[in-house]
Amino acid sequence: MDPKDATPPDAPVDEAPRPEKRPSPRAVPDAAAPTSAQKRAASPTKSPAAKRTPAAKRTPAAKRSATGAAPATAAPARGRTRPKDHVHDVVVVGGGPSGSSCAYWLADAGWDVAVVEKKQFPREKTCGDGLTPRAVRQLADMGLEEALAGSHRFTGLRSCGWGLVLEMPWPAHPVFPPYGCTITRHDLDALVAERAAKAGAVVHQHTEALEPLLADASGSAGTPRVAPPGASLPECGGVVVRDVGTGVTREVRGRYVVVADGSNSRIGRALGTTRQRGYPLGMALRGYYRSPRHDDPYIESHLDIRDAAGDVVPGYGWIFPLGDGRVNVGVGLLSTDERWKGVNTSRLMEAFVAGAPASWELSEETSCGPPTGGKLPMSFGVVPHTGPNVLVIGDASGAINPFNGEGIAYGYETGRLAAASLSEALAGDGSAGVGRYEERLEAGYRDYYRVGRAFVRLISNPAAMHWCVSVGMRSEAFMSQLMRIMANLMRPGTPGAAELGYDALVRIAELVPEQVAALLA
Ligand SMILES: Cc1cc2nc3c(=O)[nH]c(=O)nc-3n(C[C@H](O)[C@H](O)[C@H](O)COP(=O)(O)OP(=O)(O)OC[C@H]3O[C@@H](n4cnc5c(N)ncnc54)[C@H](O)[C@@H]3O)c2cc1C
Predict the structure, then answer these.
(1) Measured from the CA of 409, which atom of ligand 1 is nearest?
(2) 64 close to 71: Cβ distance less than 8 angstroms
């Protein structure tokens, strides 16, 4: 990252450099998430807030609440020098895909946004490094298409299982590009954080959020609290942060707070988020290998990975070419079901590497280091998603697609949807604007993720999984349509086989309550 574009890690909040010229705040364009369900999506351009002049809707900052979080209508403090008690429009906790996207869209719309990120970019991040057309589209919308030019482009997915191999190019789509990219998170996350900083966000790196600033002293900051089902998160005035270099702590305050601190979500947990039992959770491991096929035009997935007893487990192994001499190799397992809780992912990885096609040349000799792993919370299974002035996005909300374990695109999209909602909140709609985030999630993902949960239950049954894969793999036409559904690349309003099949699945999922489906699986 260009040092002049981001706040130096040790710069105090008050002296954070600001861009010379800031535009008047305006509405954030909604994320491109054209699932068939999105026909019902709330449009920001139809919102009353979008028609207002933000400045005209503001009242003095003197009306701040006990937390320091001002009411949604308070005036933002702008300018290059900030008082010690400066309150940003928005504080974003975490500068990964979701946090940086949210910060970019807010800053681009003219709001005063600060990101606190505990690491220094560029930094390693455990991931498969695979971007589908959905993610590429979001990056292009943030003006990063050219920056991706040096990454490895791939044209589709090669699916392997039970001795069968199918190569499927990405399906054509009116909105999403016909290619995906692989790029290490080391490089990708630095690019997006830098983009947010260039748009005007203050990015505090090496700055770890320790606890939320809560209005309610009884829920003392740092103490995990679980919000009851249906409840909202508490009001939050910002976070206490620690400078990783010096150990000095301070407060970073905001009228609104966005929780984007990933799957472990220390701040989300402290506010009261919790994972709903029964929602899918993945575990995955990945490592890098040097390979002669590092620039293969297909990413590869293996659908018949096996545990120590030789039984096929619900998940897949992947080999993603990076185009830089290396491939990213990993295994992912759906660990929600009791039957798979005891599976050792390290053994699964060793077995997968040993059994991978020899042409990839995966071995101890070509390994670039031991594998690392992480959790994949899926299907928005982490709740609540909002409080009066708090929004939870990306992995912290469990936004990962349960069909394929993809989370980067959904981090970008939920960050953007949160920014659109906050822009309305800041322009005068207050907590009603915050509430529109939940509406946008419902409109964009509810049906799709409900079908995804049914899919997860199906493949958690070994016999059903074997039948589906062995039958499906014999039909290229079927697998191509399935790929369109699994990568969430349906075309709204187009009566194609995938779209018609998906619409039928949505109707079945609506008719069969999830509890009944769980018993049948
Ligand atoms: C092994 C593995 C492979 C995967 N492969 C893919 C893939 O190929 N494609 C794909 O689309 N998805 C993949 N995923 C999922 C993807 O990595 C996540 O969905 C994505 O990173 C979510 O982005 P996020 O911004 O919500 O969270 P994160 O990327 O986790 O970012 C959170 C950020 O917050 C920071 N942070 C955390 N705590 C604090 C704190 N207290 N204070 C300040 N900062 C903090 C972190 O340093 C981090 O930068 C994979 C996941 C795993 C585990």
Answers:
(1) 11
(2) yes
What pairing do the DSSP bridges indicate for beta strands 236-243 and 180-182? unpaired
Q: Is the CB of 413 under 6 A from ligand 1?
A: no
Q: If you search the block for the tokens 């009566």, which residue do you land on?
A: 495
Backbone angles phi, psi at 167, to 5 degrees: -105, 125
Question: Which sign, positive or negative, has the C-alpha torsion 95, 99, 105, 108?
Answer: negative
Give the tens place of pLDDT for each residue, 486-517: 999 989 888 788 888 888 788 777 766 665 55
**Which tokens belong to 521?**
């699986």
Q: For the whole model, what pTM was predicted?
A: 0.86
352-365: pLDDT as tens digits: 999 999 999 999 99
CB distance 418 to 391 below 8 Å: yes
**What pairing do the DSSP bridges indicate for beta strands 113-116 and 87-93?**
parallel
Top mutation candidate among 101, 127, 206 for ligand 1, by most atoms within 8 Å of CB: 127
Rounded Cα gap, residues 66 and 351, in angstroms? 56
**CB of 119 shorter than 6 A to ligand 1:** yes
146 Cβ neighbours under 8 A, 6+ residues apart = none
Question: Is 200 within 8 Å of 22 (Cβ atoms)?
Answer: yes
Q: Check if the beta carbon of residue 351 is closer than 8 Å to that of residue 306.
A: yes
265 Cβ inside 6 Å of ligand 1:
no
211 lines ligand 1 (CB under 6 A): no
Kindly give the distance from the C-alpha atom of residue 222 to the centroid of ligand 1, in angstroms, as a whole number. 22
d(Cα 381, Cα 433) in Å, to the nearest integer? 22
Report the amino acid identity of residue 272: G
- Which residue's alpha carbon is at the smallest distance from atom 53 of ligand 1? 374
| Separation of CA 395 and ligand 1 centre (Å) | 7
- Choose among 506, 492, 517: nearest CA to 449: 506
- Mutational test site, ligand 1, from 104, 376, 412, max ligand atoms within 8 Å of CB: 376
